[in-house]
Specification:
Elements: H1 19-31, E1 35-39, H2 45-53, E2 59-62, H3 66-78, E3 84-87, E4 90-92, E5 96-102, E6 121-129, H4 130-137, E7 142-147, H5 153-159, H6 161-167, E8 171-174, E9 179-180, E10 185-186, H7 189-208, E11 211-216, E12 222-224, E13 240-245
Parallel strand pairs: 1-2, 1-7, 2-3, 4-6, 7-8
Antiparallel strand pairs: 5-6, 8-13, 9-10, 11-12, 11-13
Helix pairs in contact: 1-2, 5-7
Length: about 250
């Protein structure tokens, strides 16, 4: 057994790593007041963008990887950021304990969707419905919601259906394409089929809630789309999207 001694903070709040997201967040926070909700906070990547745009903005993060959540919490305490808080839980469309696949101490690709690999571990995490958590915390106005949960976006959006219906906040989210690497190699057919099905279900849910989807290009511009084209290697713009109320 190994017990490391001093551990430095591995937080990643350098917002230059996601400049297109910072540009969109800047627009959203200029348009709306209220709390910024970050689902899948990981090591504070989006927190860094929020702080760079509006350091006094109310921020609520969710991160089920306890190791990653610890580093964000420590950063908030060390800097006296009283308008920001983070909870060590996941969000879904139900309350309960779910299986979660993770590699390493702060895996950026950790997910409720089953994954395989030599370094992959299956753990159990608590999940809640977003609507219920916001009500329990007494959070009123929501400026925007960011969701980065590696394939489980539809369940999170379902859990926020009441908030989206009443308050109509914009939603930033990711949908990964059906290819990978600089060569844009196509993924195995079974994985591509699963990702396409999940994306179609997510789009249908947003449309049902009265939202229109746009792709976010590397400059942070919003390009309206009718549907996800996950197999389109030539026309690929990026995996970041925004849903805005019609």
């Amino acid at each position: 057994y190994r017990i490391p001694g001093y551990v430095s903070n591995i937080l990643d709040i350098d917002s230059s790593n996601e400049r297109e997201i910072r540009a969109v967040i800047g627009r959203l926070l200029a348009e709306r007041t209220g709390c910024f909700v970050d689902v899948g906070a990981n090591l504070g990547q989006t927190l860094g963008s929020v702080l760079s745009v509006d350091p006094d903005r109310s921020y609520l993060g969710f991160e089920p990887q306890v190791s990653a959540c610890y580093f964000v919490q420590r950063f908030l305490q060390d800097n006296g950021l009283r308008n920001a808080r983070i909870l060590p839980i996941g969000l879904s469309d139900r309350d309960g304990i779910l299986r979660f696949w993770v590699a390493g101490a702060a895996d950026v690709a950790a997910s409720l969707i089953e994954r395989h690999g030599d370094d992959m571990r299956e753990i159990s995490i608590p999940v809640r419905r977003g609507d219920a958590v916001l009500a329990e915390l007494g959070i009123g106005e929501i400026a925007a919601i960011k969701i980065d949960v590696e394939g489980a976006e539809r369940e999170v959006v379902n859990g926020f259906s009441g908030t989206l219906t009443r308050q109509r906040p914009p939603v930033l989210f990711e949908v990964l394409p059906n290819f990978e690497g600089e060569e844009r190699r196509m993924l195995p057919e079974a994985i591509a089929r699963r990702q396409s099905s999940a994306a179609e279900a997510l789009a249908a849910l947003f449309h049902e809630l009265g939202y229109r989807i746009a792709s976010i290009d590397p400059q942070g511009r919003e390009i309206p789309i009718d549907r996800f084209a996950l197999d389109d290697r030539a026309g690929f713009v990026g995996w970041n999207y925004i849903a805005r109320p019609v």
